[in-house]
């Protein structure tokens, strides 16, 4: 747990400092270069700083072991963080749309090419951070680090759109194409749309986990296949599993011969639990309820 927590903190701190630098760079250059798209991207990076700080505050809680008051652990703290970041990105998207639309009603100022270069730099830098963060998120099965990675992903698409918008505005001014002058404004709205999509994805996942939706059908069917390999399991009466942040909890009801002893039933349940946990290292607990199986009754049915 300590290693997992330290890795998550390292990723979060990298995100905090990189986003602070990008926030200052994009907002200052965006304002100086008269680029709404780059300035909006800077606001998004400022929101990322806040999101990364939230992750830092919650990581320690999420990695705490189960206790008397929280017998299922604290994993959902990461899911809550993911939801908070999603809401934050939603508000950022709304703000950027508002600023972009109102920009159409003001005199158009052609952005400086410096704005395009900072957007390109942001794209390259964020692409590196996204790939490294997502790799760690998958390795650690961490929703908190995944939220940071999605933040970087939102910056990637936002920076690309901002760079294109600035370039179109500059070309419109150079060649006298008035329609292209609005490229920067349109780009800022497109940035908002991309951020909204990522926000929606994060909120949807967090909402489903908090409502304890069953895990994906493919994984559940694989659980069934593993359990069915045990000959003493006569029938799987019920199986369900819920995502609890960076780990999974499995509830299982199986039928075994009614004449099995309590010890035999206990040993079988333990073997099934170990088999599932051996293949899926993110399974933290498997709760198994045993039902009596009567072969004659089943045949009469």
Look at the helices and sheets and give the structural class: mainly alpha
Q: Any idea how many domains?
A: 2
Distance between the termini: 50 Å
Low-confidence stretches: none
Q: Give the C-alpha Rg.
A: 26 Å
Q: Mean pLDDT, nearest integer?
A: 83
**Count of strand segments:** 3
CATH superfamily of the largest domain: Cation efflux protein transmembrane domain
SSE pattern, N- to C-terminal: HHHHHHHEEHEH
Strand content: 5-15%
Summarize the amount of helix as a percent range.
over 70%
User: Helical stretch count?
Assistant: 9
Shape: elongated
Query: In this structure, how is the largest beta sheet organized?
Result: 3 strands, mixed
Tell me the name of the CATH class of the largest domain: Mainly Alpha
Looking at the overall shape, the CATH architecture of the largest domain is Up-down Bundle
What is the CATH topology of the largest domain?
Alpha-lytic protease prodomain-like
Strand order of the largest sheet: 1-2-3
Q: What this model shows, in words?
A:
- The structure is a single chain.
- The longest helix has 33 residues, at 143-175.
- The protein contains nine helices and three strands; from the N terminus they run αααααααββαβα.
- By secondary structure, the protein is mostly helical.
- Helix 2 (36-62) packs antiparallel against helix 3 and helix 5 packs antiparallel against helix 6 (183-210).
- A hairpin with a 4-residue loop joins strand 1 (235-243) and strand 2.
- It has helices at residues 2-32, 36-62, 76-103, 113-140, 143-175, 183-210, 217-228, 262-279, 295-300, and strands at 235-243, 248-257, 283-293.
- The chain folds into two domains: 2-210, Alpha-lytic protease prodomain-like; 217-300, Cation efflux protein, cytoplasmic domain (Alpha-Beta Plaits, 2-Layer Sandwich).
